[in-house]
Batch of 3 targets.
Target 1
Amino acid sequence: MSTLPLNSGATQFSASQTAKINVLSQPIPIEHYLRQPQRLVNALTDSRRVSQLSEQVFRLKMQPLSFLSLKIQPTVDMKVWAESNGTIKLRSLGCEILGFEYINQRFTLNLQGHLSLHESNGITSLQGRADLEVQVDIPPPLCFTPRPILEAAGNGLLKSVLMTVKQRLLHQLLADYHSWVKSQIEENTLDNYNSELPLFNPE
């Protein structure tokens, strides 16, 4: 995974995205759901592209990206954890560009994000922000493209990546939370039912 600093000739791209979701009250508060990084990661991305490396570290194979005439597919290692106040933090640990060694050796990615609970006037909401930054040495002949054009294309690409994550956050996270609450209630109900059954004593 590439984490090396790049030279001063690297081109830098960046994008940020914020999100806010109102959360309806459920029998199990959403704080309990947010303590499970794996469910959160699978809700925000396609679970078929994610592998879990440790309790808090996940490897995400991103969708192929098109940048001018280049097509790249980054694989990003991310750490996702919950702080004591309930805030979820996300930070990239490294990135690899498969099948494109020139770019892989001259590419760094930095992703940071957070998601936290807020209460206001009796309304619970999740509020988050993600910041994505990429530095890369553009290979020839693209390196001769005017820098404003490169930056506009790169920044636009990163913005579209974050927008895709935001849309999944808005549509998938609450649906997965509600599904999790339902499964927990059903599981507890079944456990209670089984504990109340009389022991079978054959004669």
Target 2
Amino acid sequence: MTDLAFPKLPGGLPDKRQVAASFSRAAASYDSVAELQRDVGSELLRRLPTDHAPQRWLDLGCGTGYFSRALAERFSLGEGLALDIAEGMLNHARPLGGAQYFIAGDAERLPLQDASCDLVFSSLAVQWCADFAAVLNEAYRVLKPGGVLAFASLCVGTLYELRDSWRQVDGMVHVNRFREFSRYQQMCADSSFSLLSLQSCPHVLHYPDVRSLTHELKALGAHNLNPGRPGGLTGRARISGLIGAYEHFRQAQGLPATYQVVYAVLEKPR
């Protein structure tokens, strides 16, 4: 059983190069365990303005292309761009179609022209970006006036059961850190966008045991790459301690894993 976090930059967020490598390796297994990702992305789609019909849309952090295909179905007359920092994800997504173009790129430095898109859709990707203000600025730059940025991200409170259980075992960081919701509120308010909606909602999944949860996180690419982490597999005694601590959270449906999801829809003023 492996640990579940990424290496941290000085700002407390992961090194994107290793994030990209980790998600590339997980491309083949990702969709088999991506219940949360599908639920969150579907909810983000429902939150799009009903009268918005983009001629060109961008799936930012497209992963395996699941929502690139959903966007193509919803906006059948539009042209689609799918962008991800992980080459392995793009290689997986490209044969499945959906978008007309699959692009390797960074959300903080989009390789796109100014005012070239009508919609930027990003589900559970921007939490890996250390400079979220740059993400907002880049989305604003590539959108046309009246264009929409819709993103879903994760904030503080995500996987708190796992974090608190590990805290009882040792003093090491095993679970990814995320921004506070108030930071998303402030950065969106400070941006040039008009805010249409911004909300934080808990999304709880249940598992029969701890190993099922940790297996899923690893299959998603969210395993521990921290410098100085213990070599090899996590020790049997520490895993036993983790299991015992996590059992205190057990509910009738199983062991809960809470994801605190941020949903936002912003518009570039006309």
Target 3
Amino acid sequence: MSDEILRWADWTSPVLPVEREVVSRLVEGEAGQSPLLFVPGPGRGAWAFAERWLGHAANRGFPAHALTPREGGDLRAHVHDVRQVAASLPRQAVLIGHGFGASVVARALARYPARAAVLVAPVLSKWGAIGGGFKTNPMGTIPAVFGGRMRLNRRQLFSAALATEEADDYLARMSSSYLFNVKNPGRAVGDPPVLVVGSPDDRVVSRKALDRTAAAYGGAPLLFPGMGHDMMLDAGWAEPIDAILDWLTKELTAS
């Protein structure tokens, strides 16, 4: 779907307004870095970032916000919500998407002039996720082949280092989700710096897919071996967010 079609749909079939859930961790005073807007994929809420990464980012001087995807929303609706929330922030935002949330960010970058963007364990191909899912979770993946929802399991999402009880608690808070397919998200407005982050041990996103996505933005992925797909909740969660914030500090200072 081209950006022109999206714009035409905005006029002929506007996205319905909803009450959006945004969880925030702010920095005291007016000083601080650019605000961060974290975007989870469908099936997860803002809580997935509020558990660890939001507070950690705020402690390092980044006002941090996370947006819960609207229930039953398609890709266009999710992109719309990200753009609206980002535009409401007091300063130009950094967009950070995880999983299918990264596909939302990739599309939003064509319409919102982000200060920078980070794609964490990005799932931009519906069929790539289905192919990988059959290897580790065939029963949870089969419905997605026929347009239904996909449910991921503990082995796909987390490393063995995460306590079973903690992993099961997170899984209980997640719901199954529909899959997006973003083959051509369009050129990012203003050509912001884009970082791709992932793990070579991710059972949802292959190493080849990480390489392809990073290459599309002119770089190589930043990898964290031993981690699962849901890096923001997995054991060792601090390492990737610290690396992301270090990268942002360098990029935002240089620009």
